[in-house]
Amino acid sequence: MTSPSIVWFRDDLRLADHPALRAALDRDEPVIGLYVLDDESPGIRPLGGAARWWLHHSLTSLAERLRERGSTLVLRRGPAEKVVAELARDAGAGAVFWNRRYGQPERDIDAALKTALRDDGLTAQSFAASVLFEPWTVATGSGTPYSVYTPFWRACLALPTPREPLPEPLSIPGVSKAPPSDDLESWELLPQHPDWAAGLREMWEPGEPAARRRLHEFLTEDSSSYEAARNTPSAGATSLLSPRLRWGELSPHTIWHESVQAGVGGMFLSELGWREFAWHTLFHFPDLATKNLRRDFDAFPWPTPDPEHLSAWQQGRTGFAIVDAGMRELWQTGYMHNRVRMVTASFLIKNLLIDWRIGEEWFWDTLVDADGASNSFNWQWVAGSGADAAPYFRIFNPELQAKKFDPASRYIAEWAPDHVSDSPPPQIVDLGETRKAALQAYEAVKGASRR
């Protein structure tokens, strides 16, 4: 009698370089793929709208690829610890494998499930797959987590080279009768009333095959201009791999080794390092999305948000060209150029004096690449309250940023053409006055740090 293996897919919606899948295949038993939509477990953050759109299409792709190779993807909804254990029992599974997650609620679920499965006599094992360096393997000389990027990344690079990626299996044996599965459509991940995803469909094709094509395209065609033009939003010089990493359609090990083999390193690989730093920080500080990493920032006197200012920022109606262009690009495509992300975030925090957590929540809902670490980590970096943060008094002037990084207004013309017309929209605040107000408010933080 067979005892199938369950591979619990999470943020690793791929077949190549999937250690949990490889472990299941090594058992030489049928394999059942499983994805659990968990909006119920304590501490689990429900996905934003753009992320739900991506998940629907990436799961569709994964299910098709598993089916082509002989296996199946079972979809279940509910508290993951309960759902996985129930499927293991009902399917007569002998083992459950998964790749690790690093947020505290996810780690708690995984630890409890591993104990429960082993108590029931099953093999339960987790693997390193989503980061290059496990967070507990990188520490300062005194054993504390790093708070500054450069020494953190230097310490990472002093460790053994990240392992080679595992090959994609050509066949995956399935069970003779697949367990019952939810209909993906019943999860209602796609927007309906209204359907706001036309721009996402135009720009993106979720799934592992498209991810691999984009990596190849970037390494062979676009990477030569990356370092020189990556800060120019109209240049098309960025890799556009961030949602692929967020959903695990590509592993960081695959990107690392294929980049090195293609002769692409330097700044591009350091961006992988910045992602590692975000996960390292979240692992050690689980409340990154809600609490200031620098606790002296708890003294910052955030005023009650002006609802009209917040709405203008969300809708790209601030009157500042590069801010409006970025926010409209975000709404239409689920993506925003990284330089513009910094400018729009700085404007919300330091010109509108709106708490960074409110901006973080908006990006969480509208970005296809928002993950549990990088989104909050980067918002705290801009706010000045996080790891290796830009000082609060470093305020990105949106007009100067536009002149420096979009001097011909190509990006602005694409996303906010009303700003290059004869009558551009009015600006909702005065940059000079709001800068002074922000610096004055910052004095409360300076006072707290001295106490």
How many individual domains? 3
Instruction: For the record, give the distance between the C-alpha atoms at the N and C termini, rounded to a whole number.
Output: 68 Å
The CATH architecture classification of the largest domain is Orthogonal Bundle
CATH topology of the largest domain: DNA Cyclobutane Dipyrimidine Photolyase, subunit A, domain 3
> Pairing-aware structural class of the strands and helices?
alpha/beta
* CATH level-four homologous superfamily name of the largest domain: DNA Cyclobutane Dipyrimidine Photolyase, subunit A, domain 3
Overall average pLDDT: 96
For the largest beta-sheet, the strand count, sense and barrel status come to: 5 strands, parallel
Number of strands: 5
How much of the residues is beta strand, in percent? 5-15%
Spatial sequence of strands, sheet with the most strands:
3-2-1-4-5
Q: Point out poorly predicted stretches.
A: none
CATH class annotation of the largest domain: Mainly Alpha
Q: Give me the strand/helix succession.
A: EHEHEHEHEHHHHHHHHHHHHHHH
Set out the fold topology:
Elements: E1 5-9, H1 19-26, E2 31-37, H2 49-68, E3 72-77, H3 80-90, E4 95-99, H4 104-119, E5 123-127, H5 149-157, H6 198-203, H7 208-222, H8 226-229, H9 242-246, H10 252-261, H11 266-284, H12 307-315, H13 321-333, H14 338-351, H15 356-366, H16 374-383, H17 398-405, H18 410-415, H19 431-450
Parallel strand pairs: 1-2, 1-4, 2-3, 4-5
Helix pairs in contact: 3-4, 5-11, 13-14, 14-16, 15-16
